[in-house]
Amino acid sequence: MFNAIVIDKDESGQSVALKQLDDAQLPEGDVVIDVAFSTLNFKDGLAITGSSPVVRKFPMVPGIDLAGTVRSSDHADWKPGDKVVLNGWGVGETHWGGLSQVAKLKGDWLVPLPAAFTERQAMGIGTAGYTAALCVDALVKAGVTPDQGEILVTGATGGVGSVAVALLKKAGFKVIGSTGKASEEAYLRQLGADSIIDRAELSAPGRALGKERWAGAIDAVGSHTLANACAQTRYGGAVAACGLAQGADLPATVMPFILRGVRLLGVDSVMAPKALRLAAWERLARDLDPALIEVIGAEIGLAEAPAAAADLLAGKVRGRVIVDVNR
Predict the structure, then answer these.
(1) How far apart are CA 159 and CA 278, in angstroms?
(2) Same domain, 220 and 308
């Protein structure tokens, strides 16, 4: 028997509870993992609270991330004792996820735990940090360099934003952190932000073209914030978009793209191919100071996850939430 958070749904609505499950109830997969840590992401918050129809099958164990040890494997790439990380692939949506002491998954979805990190540290990074690394990689591949100017990070105190600030600073960029939490300026500067702006500068409807302010941006917010980030990006710059905390709409015009050659780079973490995943984790292992993970992340036990999910959606959480599934 093992413990897991289980989301279920019937005529009366959705329910969430900590339950004991049997190994025989595990879904299909070719690798069984003893999970050490998971984490909470924005998508997990949506799933657990039922705020959005993230879950496609019931009952469902949420958690789009996990780190743990292979218990048994029928997959050629993995053997018992291997340390592994999982991010995305529809886990926690269509396949049981990481908020559980045991998981059964497809081996093709796994990547090795980088030697630079413990399982706990990997979940301090989680999908949010891995997505941040994908965004930094996307900007670098697009030719954005530190000498071209500053980089804007929206939602800078969130999970993606926090790691993005740290990674960009390590890569030599000057970083502008956009946040609605003025009290967190010291936190952002500790991560590497050079300056802070109020998110209100970007969150309201803006002009089709604004003053050129930054060479690039990483946006996890969407809606007017993303539109304004594009409208204020310098000629030839690029914006990596990966989230929708403000909204899924994009009330923009084509002006930044056809008059300034700005590029909008869509970044997907869920179905990203393995080569991109390995490169992102390589950047994290090389450039993210493990000591910063302690600054970014706070730990909770498995039973605390539902309440923490609600706080996450309410904007009450700074950085990352690490879930010790064994307490």
Answers:
(1) 20
(2) no
Whether residues 9 and 87 share a domain: the answer is yes
- 217 shares its domain with 244: yes
Same structural domain, 227 and 253: yes
* Residue 57 resides in a domain: yes
CATH number at residue 304: 3.90.180.10
Q: Is residue 216 part of a domain?
A: yes
- Provide the token pair at 231: 């409208």
Chunk the chain into consecutive blocks of 10 residues (it has 327) and report each block's average pLDDT, rounded to whole numbers: 96 94 96 97 93 93 98 98 97 97 98 97 95 98 98 95 96 97 94 97 97 98 98 98 95 98 97 97 96 90 96 87 96
pTM recorded for the entire structure: 0.92
Instruction: Indicate if 168 and 51 belong to the same structural domain.
Output: no
Residues 54-93: tens digit of each pLDDT: 999 999 999 999 999 999 999 999 999 999 999 999 999 9
The number of folded domains in the chain is: 2
Integer Cα distance of 155 and 178 in angstroms: 6
Neighbours of 259 (CB within 10 A): 12
CATH value at residue 252: 3.40.50.720
